[in-house]
Write a structure and sequence with these properties.
Elements (H helix, E strand, L loop, with lengths): L14 E2 H25 L5 H17 L3 E4 L3 E7 L2 E6 L3 E4 L4 E7 L3 E4 L3 E4 L5 E12 L2 H6 L4 H17 L18 H16 L4 E13 L1 H41 L6 H16 L16
Antiparallel strand pairs: 1-5, 2-5, 3-4, 3-6, 7-9, 8-9, 9-10
Helix pairs in contact: 1-2, 4-5, 6-7
Length: 297
């Protein structure tokens, strides 16, 4: 079986509507005047002028079916007995073949937010995800004739691409430099837009932008993942605190030795380091203890 090749948009035949309307009105007025003159000029008028004039009026009425309007950022898809005849994008009042069927297609930028999908990320964790897709029709012929309902097609294929993209990345990056849904927003959005565009190319639709609007763990694991995130944050904070405390202790010992404030042996140095680390790393306020003895007493 031979398959019909893909349709692409072509320019349809149409002319400016206002000059065509003026010409038709003038012809109609002249026809009416001719009919009246013919009826008055003959004592026994013949029905021929009336019939001819009526036929001309009927023809003009039929030709008036060729008028149509094109709004800004709109295309009128024209068909001749089911065959695609072209698309008119010239704005304003236009006139074309009255046998053409016409259907308006919006070329404006549109957007929609997908429903919240429950999918598994690359690590197998169930997550909830949704996205906002900005799109517009760029080829009216493909949008009308290559898919059944291009608006429904855009929505379903966008959600399919979103599901496929979400399965390619983990929710959180456990390795430095590895992209994740939560940390690499620009890269994820670009991937999502490309995935959607690949699916909508045959529908004459261009994806202007795609962005994740909702991202969260599924309810059944949300609490456990929250605890893991809190634990990771605590560990990261502790690492930063210990790193700063060690630097401060090192600086304090260096300054004490440099200025000759006190001469510390290894045992006293170790005790001071221990005390300073307790003070700097402790979560609660420290209580000073006055030592009246010695470390050796």
């Amino acid at each position: 079986m031979n398959q019909r090749p893909d349709l692409n948009e072509t320019a349809a035949f149409s002319v400016a509507g206002i000059p065509a309307a003026v010409i038709m009105v003038l012809i109609a007025l002249a026809d009416v005047a001719w009919i009246i003159h013919s009826l008055k000029a003959q004592p026994d008028p013949s029905p021929a002028p009336l019939i001819a004039g009526s036929l001309l009026i009927g023809l003009l009425g039929f030709l008036a079916k060729g008028f149509f309007q094109v709004q800004p950022n709109q295309g009128q898809v024209l068909q001749l007995f089911g065959r695609y005849a072209g698309t008119s994008r010239e704005t304003g009042l236009r006139w074309t073949n009255p046998f053409y069927g016409k259907s308006a297609i919006s070329l404006r930028v549109r957007n929609f937010e997908s429903s919240k999908l429950k999918v598994n990320d690359a690590d197998g964790n169930p997550i909830e995800i949704a996205a906002i897709v900005v799109w517009q029709v760029v080829d009216t012929a493909e949008a009308v004739f290559c898919v059944d309902n291009y608006e429904n097609f855009v929505q379903i294929q966008s959600e399919s691409a979103l599901r496929q993209m979400a399965q390619s990345y983990p929710y959180d990056a456990h390795d430095d430099g590895k992209p994740s849904l939560r940390s690499h927003g620009d890269q994820i959005n670009t991937h999502l837009a490309n995935e959607i565009q690949q699916r909508l190319g045959k529908a004459g639709v261009k994806v202007t932008e795609a962005r994740i609007s909702h991202l969260a763990y599924a309810q059944e694991i949300a609490q456990a993942m929250l605890q893991r995130q809190q634990a990771s944050a605590i560990v990261a904070a502790r690492e930063r605190i210990v790193e700063g405390a060690v630097s401060m202790v090192e600086m304090a010992l260096a300054e004490l030795g440099k200025r000759g404030v006190v001469d510390l042996d290894n045992e006293r140095r170790a005790a001071m380091v221990s005390n300073l680390l307790v003070v700097l790393c402790g979560e609660r306020a420290t209580q000073p203890v006055v030592n009246t003895g010695t470390l050796y007493g």
